[in-house]
Amino acid sequence: MADVIRGKAFYCGDFVNTDVMSPGRFEPYDSNEQLARMALIDYESPVPFVDPATGRSPFTIIVAGEEFGCGSSRETAPLALQLAGARAVIARSFARIFFRNCVNMGCLLPIRFPHDLGAAILGHEISIDVAQREFTAGGRTHEFPDFGPLRHIIEAGGLTAYTKRRLAEAKR
Mean pLDDT across the stretch 15-19? Predict the structure, then answer.
């Protein structure tokens, strides 16, 4: 995980479910490019998350409300967001399985933070300093909680990379 993540913010409200993030009607996905193009395609916003002309998102950071990632345990949901260009999600809360999929797959940094950021954050720059555990949005800097033992999995880039590292260390 990069020490600093910077980019434009995309805003999602409360209870955005995984079927909106990667709709099942498009499965099976033929490629990562197709999965990226479908990311948040069903989310109603003044601006689409993915630019239809490029198939990529101009948004690096998603700011969301309550229970982001609720619904199914669809692993393609965090992967679709990452393949489109997202690197982090700052949400008031996450659905438990979605949060763990982000951590275990190493595809998105899921930051739980009881923010008061609203739809006006759309398109604004956000900077996340992972090492300092703080992000700057709307001209204010906020400190977010430590990830605890999950920090090691996040730093390794996901559960598979973490496990491989641990096994290699154990062989020494």
Answer: 95
| Domain edges within the chain | 4-145
Check residue 90 and give its pLDDT. 97
Looking at residue 142, what is its pLDDT? 95
Calpha distance 66→114 (Å, rounded):
9
What sections of the chain are H helices per DSSP? Answer: 18-21, 32-38, 76-84, 96-105, 150-156, 159-171
- Whether residue 1 is predicted with pLDDT greater than 70 in this model: the reply is no
* Contacts of range 159-167, beta carbons closer than 8 Å, 24 or more positions apart: 159/103, 159/104, 159/105, 159/106, 160/106, 161/106
Q: Are strands 59-64 and 88-91 parallel, antiparallel or unpaired?
A: parallel
**Domain 4-145 in this protein, CATH class:** alpha beta
Q: How far apart are CA 36 and CA 52, in angstroms?
A: 11
- Under the banding of pLDDT at 50, 70 and 90, the label for residue 2 is low
Q: Output the six-digit token pair for 170.
A: 């154990």
